[in-house]
UniProtKB/TrEMBL annotation:
InterPro entries membership: B30.2/SPRY, B30.2/SPRY_sf, Butyrophylin_SPRY, ConA-like_dom_sf, Leu-rich_rpt, LRR_dom_sf, NACHT-assoc, NACHT_NTPase
Highest taxon above the source species: Eukaryota
Source organism: Amphilophus citrinellus
Compartments, as annotated in UniProt: Cytoplasm
Protein name in the entry: B30.2/SPRY domain-containing protein
Location, primary (coarse class): cytoplasm
Domain B30.2/SPRY: 790-987
Swiss-Prot/TrEMBL keywords: ATP-binding, Cytoplasm, Leucine-rich repeat, Nucleotide-binding, Repeat
PANTHER family: NACHT, LRR AND CARD DOMAINS-CONTAINING
SMART domains registered for this protein in UniProt: FISNA, LRR_RI, PRY, SPRY
Length: 987
């Protein structure tokens, strides 16, 4: 091989390149591909991805070897180069029929390269540790617990720090589309559509890297993902040290994945490039740069430019790309480069339990740990983050082993304190307590200063600024094994360091502040600064800082916190200060974190007050202070209750618009919001618009029917509806006093965002011709998703407020009137008399019961009012009610055919159905009233009775059922209630 080295040239080879490649040149001779395996499928346009990447492999083999005279290489590298050279000569002789005095082996089939790479990845990932920093290694396939992954419609750039997602319970919603890891490259709606680039985001520690490892291992072990020939997994931590250096694409692959050096045979490969941790990138990936440079896989290019060209599709256009990142870095990535967006949400509640049962083989121990975590909501909420599950398992395993019968940690600070203490204890005897403590202090300093800079990855120069020197640190690495990790850069150089999770860095940063400052000085300052933070980036730090002032935690860290002025009195002052802040009408996010802070200080008094009121049923919206409202929101957001569907009527004690506005944070967690008939106005529309336009909005169905929103409210709602973040699919504005102006606002919003709304209900409004035309035109538009537009039951009457918009004039059916009922006032008044009227015989007439029905059956929304006197029944009934005799089958309210309200002169009311009655208390009525309003919403299955006095309406009762036939209003009288009467009111 040495003898032929002088023949190798370093300039660009002159052999032809495939037409599908990105560099210029004529097509490669067709017989050059004669040795390719016939079973491999061809790409649509020749071999695009495979030919290009393999040609560059061959070229770079030639090119790199030409440099061996001038560039020093280790013996190990020389061996790899020699093997590489051999394949290059084979390729050259194959193309040009050149006798290089080297035997020409048979070309390898594609499976050869697959098996080579798969074998390497199995060695790398099969014995993967549960977390990279854990000592006990387990088979990745055995310890992997399923993560909840969702398909998303857009990239979300978070307006708040990701630690805020630690603060409230999370459950899958109906609006989310869960997907399996094997379906990452399947289009969510079109199965055959090509997916080139997938962006997966998720908060720190949520399991993105673990997901990548499992995906690659499944491919390596041939379980899934076999449609990909070769996978090239990179991490940005691995790529960061290459900043400023130049590589061709093949050189970069060989540099980062040495197992690929032998791949030099051209073939029709389907490639997947994985780039894990975009948020950790220190490369200059300017996807918006317009430098007019043509992409060339064979020419050395700066690493950041090379990656940009590959990710943006200018290189290897048919290769698949998978990028993972934390949410904060998603704004680095243009939407047009992304085919599919997914999000890792972590563990669902069942998966949390599954994790601990896999982690602990002792079933009794696993059950005890699960029970303990469930008892502490703050811990259970955090456990949707896999890294926190690992920390919790590590701590509880140690506590149960060393302190049998001892109390388990209940707060976040207690958990992290135990986590730190356990690792200090493990290394004290070997390295001495003084050295161990000093390293922890140095790490705390590093954590604080790097947190201020926003850094999560550090290099040796960062460590030296905190008096941590690499050689000494590696000697004492046992102290920091599980809280601080070291990673090798390329060829063992460029070492990188990081804490195992953002929360560990936040805890140590709080510890550093606690070591350096006085509690009295720092508590209020830190609380105020955290409240002033626009995105909550100090929330978790504040929880740890306050928790470290609790004496039990300080006792466990006495070697670190030698001097402290914390006392129960100081902490009580802090508790009162926090409660004062909670009462100041803070945003829900800030209030929630302050409740977590109170929990760290072991004070749950506000929450317990509300919980007691909820249990006793004595909770009243009118009596709740701002602090109590905040406590209620905290309870609801951190509860096990499913918030996917929000129905305001479920919270009947909060039946006011002011209460509704306070509950808006709950609605941000819902995919379906039901607000029908809740007396909302345009004030509520502004709040709902903010819910619709929220980046993380899950809302897919919104029912606002029967609220007097008017055009002004609809205009405010349309602002949110037209934002790109809104993905509402169904909107019900039936009976909302909407005219043509409101319809125009809706049409404008849908022109701006036409891709999601499928159904729009505008029945019982007055759109007019202009409104109808504006919306109907959109239904016909090819880009509008709107398919079901309802505009029935319109008219000018629908612009009247309240239930008056549904007012109908009833007509008595004289053929049903009992002969003891006298009709007067043009048949609008019915009076019970002892003397009979000479009505003709009719099959529909009530022959015994003093009752009658109206002429027309009702199936929509209708409202009517009556004035009554004496003792009367105000009923609705199916037409088939019995009319012969006086059995229960004939009487209103005494059978399953009718529903009735009985009214008496003493202002007493009772409701009846199927011979079951219920009295309605009249103690709250301050004046006598003889007018009742009846509202029937037949489609919704509701029948409501209202007491009307001086223009105000008081709900007496609502029947809820499913109506199966048209309902006929009816009136009835007791046998001896002669003189009683009912008069139909007009508008």
């Amino acid at each position: 091989m040495v003898a032929v080295e002088p023949w190798i040239q370093t300039e660009t080879p002159s052999f032809p390149i495939p037409e599908c490649a990105t560099w210029p040149g004529p097509a490669i001779p067709q017989d050059a591909f004669a040795a390719l395996p016939p079973s491999e499928p061809a790409c649509a346009s020749c071999t695009s991805c495979g030919s290009e990447i393999l040609m560059l492999f061959n070229y770079i083999s030639l090119h790199t070897l030409g440099k061996t005279k001038t560039k020093h290489r280790s013996p190990k590298k020389q061996n790899k180069t020699t093997g590489h050279t051999l394949h290059t000569f084979v390729f050259l002789s194959f193309i040009f029929d050149i006798d290089l005095m080297v035997p020409v082996p048979e070309p390898h089939p594609i499976t050869f390269y697959q098996q080579m790479l798969q074998s390497s990845f199995q060695d790398k990932f099969l014995g993967a540790e549960e977390e990279e920093w854990a000592k006990d290694t387990q088979n990745l396939a055995n310890i992997y617990t399923e993560l909840y992954i969702t398909a998303r419609c857009d990239i979300q750039i978070p307006a708040q720090h990701e630690v805020r997602s630690f603060e409230k319970a999370w459950k899958p919603t109906g609006a989310e589309k869960p997907i399996q890891p094997t379906d990452l490259f399947k289009h969510p709606s079109e199965e055959d559509k090509t997916i080139k680039t997938v962006l997966t985001n998720g908060i720190a520690g949520i399991g993105k890297t673990f997901l990548v490892q499992k995906f690659v291992l499944d491919w390596a072990e041939k379980r899934f993902n076999q449609d990909v020939h070769l996978i090239f997994p990179f991490t940005f931590r691995q790529l960061n040290p290459l900043k400023g250096e130049k590589f061709s694409l093949a050189e970069l692959i060989h540099e980062c994945i040495p197992e690929t050096v032998g791949i030099t045979e051209e073939s029709k490969f389907k490639l997947l490039f994985v780039f894990d941790g975009l948020d950790e990138s220190r490369l200059h990936l300017d996807f918006y740069a317009d430098d007019n440079r043509s992409a060339d896989v064979t020419k050395p290019t700066k690493t950041d430019v090379l990656l940009r060209e590959l990710i943006s599709g200018n290189l290897l256009q048919s290769a698949r790309i998978w990028i993972t990142t934390r949410p904060a870095a998603t704004n680095q990535f243009p939407r047009e480069f992304v085919s599919n967006i997914t999000e890792v949400k972590g563990f669902t509640d069942p998966c949390k339990e599954e994790y601990f049962k896999k982690r602990f083989k002792d079933e009794e121990q696993a059950n005890r740990i699960v029970s303990h975590i469930k008892a502490s909501r703050s811990l259970f909420i955090m456990c949707h983050i896999p890294v926190f599950c690992w920390i919790t398992a590590t701590v509880l395993e140690d506590v149960l082993k060393t302190r049998e019968g001892g109390e388990l940690p209940k707060t976040l600070t207690e958990m992290y304190t135990e986590f730190l203490v356990s690792h200090i204890d493990q290394t004290k005897e070997k390295y001495g307590p003084e050295k161990s403590i000093q390293y922890i202090k140095s790490l705390a300093k590093l954590a604080f200063h790097q947190l201020e800079k926003g850094n999560l990855i550090f290099y040796e120069k960062d460590l030296s600024e905190s008096n941590i020197y690499f050689n000494e640190a590696s000697v004492c690495s046992g102290v920091v094994t599980k809280i601080f990790r070291e990673e090798q850069g390329r060829k063992g150089k460029d070492k990188m360091f990081s804490f195992v999770h953002l929360s560990v860095q936040e805890f140590l940063a709080a510890l550093y502040v606690r070591i350096k400052t006085s509690s009295k000085k720092i508590h209020r300052i830190s609380i105020d600064r955290a409240l002033q933070s626009p995105n909550g980036h100090l929330d978790l730090f504040l929880r740890f800082l306050l928790g470290l002032s609790v004496q039990t935690n300080q006792g466990k860290l006495h070697n670190l916190l030698i001097k402290t002025d914390s006392s129960p009195e100081t902490n009580q002052e802090t508790i009162q200060y926090i409660k004062k802040k909670i009462s100041e009408n803070l945003s829900p996010e800030r209030s929630i974190n302050l409740f977590h802070c109170l929990n760290e200080l072991n004070d749950c008094s506000l929450v317990e007050e509300i919980q007691q009121s909820l249990r006793s049923g004595s909770l009243s919206a009118d009596k709740l202070s701002s602090a109590h409202w905040s406590a209620l929101l905290f309870i609801l957001l951190s509860s096990e209750e499913d918030l996917d569907v929000f129905d305001l009527k479920k919270y009947s004690v909060f039946a006011s618009e002011d209460a509704f506005l306070r509950l808006v944070p709950i609605m941000k967690e819902a995919s379906k919001i039901l607000l029908s008939g809740c007396d909302l106005s345009k004030r509520s529309c502004s709040a709902l618009s903010s819910v619709l336009s929220c980046q993380s909005s899950m809302l897919r169905e919104l029912d606002l029917s029967n609220n007097d929103l008017q055009d002004s409210g609809v205009r405010l709602l349309s602002v949110g509806l037209g934002t790109p973040h809104c993905r509402l699919e169904r909107l019900n504005l039936s009976g909302c006093m909407v005219s043509a102006k409101g319809c125009t606002s809706l049409a404008s919003a849908l022109r701006a965002n036409p891709y999601h709304l499928i159904e729009l209900d505008l029945t019982y409004n007055h759109p007019g011709d202009a409104g109808t035309n504006a919306l109907s035109a959109g239904v016909e538009h090819e880009h509008w998703k709107l398919k079901n537009l309802r505009l029935e039951h319109g008219g000018e009457q629908r612009l009247k407020p309240g239930l008056k918009k549904y007012f109908c004039e009833l007509t008595v059916d004289t053929n049903t009137a009992n002969r003891n009922l006298k009709l007067s006032d043009n048949n609008r008044k019915v009076t019970a008399l002892e003397l009979q009227e000479p009505y003709p015989t009719h099959a529909d007439r009530f022959d015994t019961c003093l009752q009658l029905l109206c002429e027309y059956g009702l199936t929509g929304r209708t409202y009517w009012e009556v004035d009554w006197k004496g003792v009367v029944d105000l009923a609705v009934s199916y037409r088939g009610i019995q009319k012969r005799g006086d059995s229960v089958d004939c009487k209103f309210g005494c059978n399953n055919q009718s529903w009735s309200l009985m009214c008496s002169e003493v202002d007493h009311y009772s409701v009846w159905h199927n011979n079951t009655g219920k009295d309605i208390s009249s103690s709250s009525f301050s004046s006598v009233s003889n007018r009742v309003g009846v509202y029937l919403d037949w489609p919704a299955g509701t029948l409501s009775y209202y007491r009307i006095c001086s223009g105000s309406m008081t709900l007496l009762h609502t029947f809820k059922t499913t109506f199966t036939e048209p309902l006929y209003p009816g009136f009835g009288f007791c046998t001896l209630s002669y003189g009683s009467s009912v008069s139909l009111s007009s508008q």
